[in-house]
Amino acid sequence: MDKNRLSLEMILSMERNHRRNFINDLSSFKSANLIGTVNFDGITNLAVFNSVVHIGANPPLMGFILRPTVVARQTYDNIKATGYFTINPITEKLRDRAHQTSAKYPEGISEFIMTGIKPEFSKSHPAPYVAESPFKIGLKIEEEQLIKANGCRLIIGRIIEVLIDDKLITPDGHIDLKKSKVLTISGLDTYSVVGKGQQLEYARPDC
Amino acid sequence: MDKNRLSLEMILSMERNHRRNFINDLSSFKSANLIGTVNFDGITNLAVFNSVVHIGANPPLMGFILRPTVVARQTYDNIKATGYFTINPITEKLRDRAHQTSAKYPEGISEFIMTGIKPEFSKSHPAPYVAESPFKIGLKIEEEQLIKANGCRLIIGRIIEVLIDDKLITPDGHIDLKKSKVLTISGLDTYSVVGKGQQLEYARPDC
Predict the structure, then answer these.
(1) Does A32 contact B28 at a Cβ distance shorter than 8 Å?
(2) DSSP code, position A91
(3) Which residue blocks in B3-119 are alpha helix, DSSP H?
């Protein structure tokens, strides 16, 4: 295949939306999650994130990238205020309502109400879960790292509980993501179903 | 669906491999990439990473999570030594050889040689690309953040060039990931093809 070279200068000279689409697609397929939080007045918030990553298994930690807080970032404010958040995978059935949470609703109105996504609460912490996500993770803020290059933050939470149907867990601890019907996101707004998967064996040198 | 609650205590008491599988699957489908680096002696290194994330479009930044450096981390050492790395998406055709790079080869032997993946070089920097990746990104180290909770690092690079066939770029700047045949990883070792995708429109309040 004939490869062409796009230099940094050529990338920086792209039209703004064109560049945003291009750069966001370079990271290929990403996790599709709704992050749930609540403020001190009990107003819940729900937002799509495509940047949830695994940080560690022991202690169990997950993180996500939060854009600069120059505009209102209710997710960040709520996590700072209450200390908790939830991660809820997006399924095909949830897709359209999940994406609709990215609309700019007036302050003080919950995305749960505006999109019709049903919240679910646990006795362990105040942050709302998405009732119909096939599994859901409750986290306590552990650490945040400010990225100097552009003002984004890596937010890291310690897992305090997981709500999941036992039937989705295989005997060796894996979650049946195919049965869970979890989607993947590419770019900012393209949601895809995932097809056939192949688990490969632990790689050993064959020399 | 009946949800069961797994508390932190229950998660911590899981058998080690069971917990690792479970926690790694909680982040669902992740990006599948090979990161290429080189040391001062010209020995190239190639390693699978499932944690590449988008950091920003302007300046164009991408990042990935690197495990603690208590054991040899050639990727990290090479980036620190030379300042550059490449990100190369994994396709179905590359899958088995890409996974094989995770085998513990003796020091001083390149994964490119051991797995038969062909490197490709650019005049702009010394880090090796994967020749047959449908597109490939050259980055200069910009910043690193040490995660206090478990000693992992977020490594952030500034994109300095992208090698890509023009035919993979749509008129609005998107990369045709379907045509590129890029896979997604779940857990540590399951590679899946991605099926039908749906791009959703910019969400606006409909109230």
Answers:
(1) yes
(2) B
(3) 8-12, 16-26, 74-82, 95-100, 111-115
How far apart, in Å, do the first and last CA atoms of chain B sit?
A: 31
Instruction: Give this complex's ipTM.
Output: 0.94
Token reading at B152 = 């992992």
The tokens describing A142, both together, are 């552990």
Q: Give the whole-angstrom CA distance, residue B187 versus residue B59.
A: 30
Q: Identify which of B190, B195, B196, B199 has the alpha carbon closest to the alpha carbon of residue B29.
A: B190
State whether B99 and A203 contact (CB < 8 Å).
Answer: yes
Query: Chain B, 67-86: which have a CB under 8 Å from a chain A CB?
Result: none
Q: Which segments within chain A are labelled E, that is strand?
A: 4-7, 29-31, 33-38, 44-49, 53-57, 60-66, 84-89, 119-120, 129-130, 135-146, 153-164, 184-186, 190-199
Contact A74, A66 (CB under 8 A): no
Q: Count of CB atoms within 10 A of residue B107's CB?
A: 9
pLDDT digits (tens, 9 = 90+) for A109-152: 999 999 999 999 999 999 999 999 999 999 999 999 999 999 99
> What are phi and psi for residue B122, nearest 5 degrees?
-120, 160
Phi, psi at B156, each rounded to 5°: -115, 130
CATH domain A28-192 topology:
Pnp Oxidase; Chain A (2.30.110)
- Span A72-89, pLDDT tens digits: 689 999 999 999 999 999
Contacts of A65 in chain B (CB under 8 A): 53-55, 63
- How far, in Å, CA of A105 to CA of B53, rounded? 27
CA–CA dist A37, A22 (Å, integer): 30
The whole model's pTM is what? 0.95
Is the domain defined by B29-183 classed in CATH 2.30.110.10?
A: yes
Helix (H) or strand (E) holding B146: strand B135-146
Residues 118-177 of chain B whose Cβ lies under 8 A from any Cβ of chain A: 122, 124, 134-137, 142-143, 145, 147-150, 152, 154, 156, 158-166, 169, 172-175, 177
Phi–psi pair at B9, nearest 5 degrees = -60, -45
Closest CA to B145 of A55, A183, A166, A158: A55
According to DSSP, the residues that pair with B34 across neighbouring strands are: B48, B88
The residues that bridge with A153 in the sheet, in sequence order, are A66, A146
